[in-house]
From TrEMBL:
Entry-linked PANTHER family: STRESS RESPONSE PROTEIN NHAX, UNIVERSAL STRESS PROTEIN UP12
InterPro entries to which the protein is assigned, alphabetical: Rossmann-like_a/b/a_fold, Universal_stress_UspA, UspA
Residues in UspA domain copies: 1-158
Name of this protein: Nucleotide-binding protein UspA family
Cross-referenced Pfam families: Usp
Entry's family note: Belongs to the universal stress protein A family.
Amino acid sequence: MYDRILIPTDGSMAADKASLHAFNLAEKFDSELHVLYVVSRWIPPVLSNDVKIPGEVHLSQRTVEKLKSGEMPDDVETKEKLMRPTEKIADEGRERGIKVVQSVRAGKPNKEIIDYIRKYDVDMIVMGSHGKGSLDHMILGSTTDKVLKLAEIPVVVIDTYQS
Ligand code: ATP
Ligand code: MN
């Protein structure tokens, strides 16, 4: 019934909390679990040859284009950095015997999430009400707000306010 479930993650504790429900649902429905991270901020390498800002990902235009078409960059270090936000959820899912697909895209999180569910025929999304952003949004973070408005499939929103 729900062959493919998507858990989008920004690497936050909120997304981790939501993932527990994604695991339960994937087990229940014997679904494939897609763990997607959308990198939304990066620095072009031309601007950063000398200064490497810790924590920031440096991506060439070529790499961004690759990510947009669903491919991973060749550079091992960059690849590792981009995979990191999905790692914990993917590992936990696999430990529980769930078939996991790890994906990374570049762009606006809400747009990439919507493109992804259409492209991969995802049947359900499980996500946090909040993420890494500031807690200015009392009710919903902006990514979840937009996904709820645009997705044509069920979206399970886990209350992660202050988690
Ligand atoms: P805002 O980003 O509006 O300041 P926020 O970060 O608290 O607020 P959202 O971005 O809406 O709230 O995050 C809610 C959920 O959306 C997260 O728990 C996660 O499931 C998903 N999400 C957010 N950002 C991303 C991202 N970059 N890639 C994948 N999923 C994301
Ligand atoms: Mn956010």
